[in-house]
Fold this protein.
Amino acid sequence: MKSFKTIKEEGYYLFEEKRSKFIARAKPVDTEQEALDFIQQIKTSCWDATHNCYAYIHGLNREIIYYSDAGEPTGTAGKPILNTLLRNDLTNILAVVSRYFGGIKLGVKGLIAAYSEAVEQAILKSNLIEAKLLISFPLVCDYASFECLKHSFLAIGGEIKQVIWSEEVSFILNLPAEQEKEFRKIIDGNKHKIRLNYQ
């Protein structure tokens, strides 16, 4: 099975071409829903953009692939964005390019080149890492234990997300599947401090 890469953190790139401004964002995503939520976030924050075009790929075998021209001529935006992700052997990634039209038409070739370049440069701003199968655990712990437990989870390659501070601290832990045994050891050693939060 071919292994793919993803990016470690969000990449950002801005450039102008014939007075049109292109803002590209490349973001690692753990789920398709995370990609959809970020697309909506960009549509809201960049509501005044002429177009918010995007493509995303998810799954260790690229089971989910989707792109959108978002009003640009067919094949000039979403497909070039997607092709750039595919060419770089990436998965679990979303790329969104917001275009602010500057009054000069770029033509089909110009649009394809601009969208491709924007995403390519955003990827270059990110660190590439191997894409791994992740498993998620909803957890709850007390305030006093959170930082220590967080350190332990980060040490085995975990990522803390969606932290909610209320009477206790609830959060989602994403972890490479091969580290589940180490995760269980941490949980077993801290039974009085932390618990799984399945509802």
About this structure: The domain at 134-196 is CATH 3.30.70.260 (Alpha-Beta Plaits). The chain has a mean pLDDT of 89.
